[in-house]
Amino acid sequence: MLIKPLRQLAVALLASALLPSLAHAEQTLRIGYQKSSTLLTLLKAQGSLEQRLQAEGIRVSWHEFPSGLPLLEALNLGNVDLSADVADTVPVFTQAAGAKLTYFAREAPSPTAQAILVPADSPLKTLADLKGKRVAVTKAAGSHYLLIQALAKAGLSFKDITPAYLIPADGRAAFENHKVDAWVTWDPYVASAQRQQDARILADGSGLASYQRYYLAGSDYAKAHPELLQQVYLALREAGAWTKANPAQAARILGPLWGNLDSATVEQANARRSYDVQPVKLDNLAEQQRIADAFYREGLLPKPVDARAVSVYEPAQN
């Protein structure tokens, strides 16, 4: 007569023991990314991050954004858990808005991977020639800081130009249709404009803006899941090394995902990116402070920002 109760007790105990693992198995990592998020785009295309996290019972969902600022806004609102790489300027804007975000990786500088473009037959030859011109740029992007620095080098400011704040797709259209005199953007858009529209580089980031790209997480998520950040960090390092070692193969994968770009264009763009994934340390954020100060001087930030007043996750180095 005791067999049935004992069996029920055993089932209850087994279910109780399985509850933590079942809850873990239902966990979803939500990643926000852009088209220029090369390494996570490759991991997504190859399914390698999913494979890496499958053993932990974690599935991955992917959410594409047109540029970095809306991506980090979604991260701050808790609509995604991790952000793929965004330009160094973007965290400064979200920090000014009171976002609680944690840096967990960065790509070493790639200054030539963003540039000020003009048509091949443009009369603009120097940065000083931008005075009085209409310039397309994506607000808060790395290219925005490049434009500020380039104007300053020429003794100009934003008051001396007419900025057209456009996301990359709209910036490209405006540039193609001669609605703007110049377009400030980043790769692969730079390489695409060079090869497909014969665009000319007026200036790139060399000596102006180092163009580091950062990976971030919501601070609450980072505190709760440090082991997951470690796994993503290692996957990014492997993807970066693989991309530089296999440029042709990477281009074949990325080309269709980047609007059917030809392999030569993708390889040209990737050659200008470091893809060297490193930990973030507070001492690395000196240029972040210069970016924050520049945007504040231009009246684009509502208040001064202390770039070091952020959370940083330091992965274990294997």
From TrEMBL:
Pfam families named among the record's database cross-references: NMT1
Family according to the record: Belongs to the bacterial solute-binding protein SsuA/TauA family.
Compartments, as annotated in UniProt: Periplasm
Single GO MF descriptor: ATPase-coupled transmembrane transporter activity
Keyword Signal included in the entry's annotation: yes
Signal peptide: 1-25
Gene Ontology, cellular component aspect: membrane; periplasmic space
Positions in coiled-coil regions: none
Biological role: Part of a binding-protein-dependent transport system for aliphatic sulfonates. Putative binding protein.
Solute-binding protein family 3/N-terminal domain boundaries: 28-246
TM helices/strands, residue ranges: none
Keywords, in A-Z order: Signal, Transport
Lineage: Bacteria, Pseudomonadati, Pseudomonadota, Gammaproteobacteria, Pseudomonadales
Name of protein: Putative aliphatic sulfonates-binding protein
